[in-house]
Amino acid sequence: MTQRMWHNKEIKDRYDVVIIGGGAHGLATAYYLAVNHGITNVAVLEQKFIGYGGSGRNTAILRSNYRTEEGIKFYDQALKLYEDLAQDLDFNLMFSQMGHFTLAHSTASMQAQTTRAAYNQACGVDSYVLEPKEIKEMLPEIDITDHPRYPIHGALYHPPGGIIRHDAVVWAYARACDRAGIHIHQLTKMEDIIMTDGKVTGVVTNRGKINCGMLVSCVAGWSSGICEQVGVKLALVTHPLQALVTTAYKPWLHHVVVSSTLHIYLSQTDRGELVCGNGIDHYPHYGMRSTLSFLEGYAAHVLELFPILHNVSVQRAWAGLCDMTPDYSPIISLIDEVQNFIVNCGWGTWGFKASPASGWNTAEMVATGRTPALIEPFRHDRYIKNRLVGEKAAASVGN
Ligand SMILES: Cc1cc2nc3c(=O)[nH]c(=O)nc-3n(C[C@H](O)[C@H](O)[C@H](O)COP(=O)(O)OP(=O)(O)OC[C@H]3O[C@@H](n4cnc5c(N)ncnc54)[C@H](O)[C@@H]3O)c2cc1C
């Protein structure tokens, strides 16, 4: 008989920890609470279904070649956890470390990639700069002539970067949580937060009231609305991000390719489809529909790099919500004004790759009440103290 991956259980009156959001960050937090800290009286509340948000809509790029020391060390912990995750969760996650190119189309961009390579190497992350002819050897179909509007000057190459099967990550975490005794409640929307004397003591959902010792918000693009309920104004704005997948082709692209100048990136899955995306929609909103202008813009730009793609067919396009912070770094933070409340958000266009480290450290924060050193730079009060962790050069389109 086939086993269910996770089970619908009765909602209890009280949990030690309630996590809002059944994406990779919420589930990873729940999982590491159980396996690292033995805390299992935990509920994950998901308004729709597991993976409904960005975790089921992303283009699955993993890498750790960030720009700041704080960012590089954090994403490197995540990448290392990802390397063992299939084994830890006993689930084939199809992680392919195929290598990741960030193309440079100007002298200034080459300088930026060279600096980034130096920072990466200083933190022990494998990343280096390539000349156009070296790029051509690894990507024979790319146009390195001076015909395109933005000719290629070189690239940052990151061998351990690659792609994973994103929905498998979410399902595997959910199954592991269920096996550890954690309750996953789908179709359970948190509608209000109950506060008593400045402390969070519970939540009101569409299925009734739940008391809790600690509330953790892992709702990415929905975070501003949740935090407003307890009077916390977050430094983030929600924008949609669109992506598309083509029909399947013979394998020809064996690396992830990103061009921030052209606002595009692409990779090829094991099934042969090209998975493609660009930067966020410029206007903030909560719509999750694809637009024709995205498809037109993407096609025009990708053909400058890969003219051989002139005849490919788009199979499907979609959008997800991205919680964009001013410094392109996340917020994982206890909130001074509200006790028993942790916010995990600000993952923008790049947060899927962070999920294991985010969950690991958020769980530690819940269990100990202290902020682990690795995520200290990502406290929310950095915007008040002017201690920004500027990752725009390495996040944004690069995912
Ligand atoms: C098109 C696209 C491509 C991307 N590509 C990449 C990539 O290649 N690499 C990368 O690292 N990142 C990428 N990202 C970013 C990444 O998807 C997100 O940063 C990440 O998935 C966020 O995960 P999360 O668990 O924090 O949030 P989500 O996965 O968004 O989960 C939040 C969940 O909270 C639920 N929720 C909201 N409000 C409530 C409520 N009131 N009650 C109960 N539940 C609620 C939502 O339904 C949702 O399921 C991409 C994003 C998009 C949209």
Strand content: 25-35%
Helix content: 25-40%
Write down the secondary-structure element order: EHEEHEHEHEEHEEEEHEEEEHEEEHH
Work out the number of β strands. 18
Q: Count of helical segments?
A: 9
First-to-last CA distance: 40 Å
- Helix and strand content put the structural class at alpha/beta
CATH topology of the largest domain: FAD/NAD(P)-binding domain
Description:
- The model has no long low-confidence stretch (mean pLDDT 96).
- This protein is α/β, with parallel strands linked by helices and 399 residues long.
- α1 runs parallel beside α5 and α2 crosses α8 (355-368).
- The longest helix is centred in the first third of the chain and has 21 residues, at 69-89.
- The chain starts with 13 loop residues before the first strand and ends in a 14-residue tail after the last helix.
- The protein has helices at residues 24-37, 69-89, 107-122, 132-138, 166-179, 223-228, 292-305, 355-368, 382-385; strands at 14-20, 42-45, 61-62, 100-104, 128-130, 154-158, 162-163, 183-185, 190-196, 199-205, 208-217, 237-248, 256-259, 264-268, 273-280, 314-324, 331-335, 338-345.
- It folds into two domains: 14-59 and 166-236 and 327-398, FAD/NAD(P)-binding domain, CATH 3.50.50; 96-162 and 238-324, D-Amino Acid Oxidase, Chain A, domain 2.
- Flavin-adenine dinucleotide binds at residues 20-26, 45-48, 52-55, 57-61, 189-190, 218-222, 241, 243, 277, 320, 322, 347, 349-353, 399.
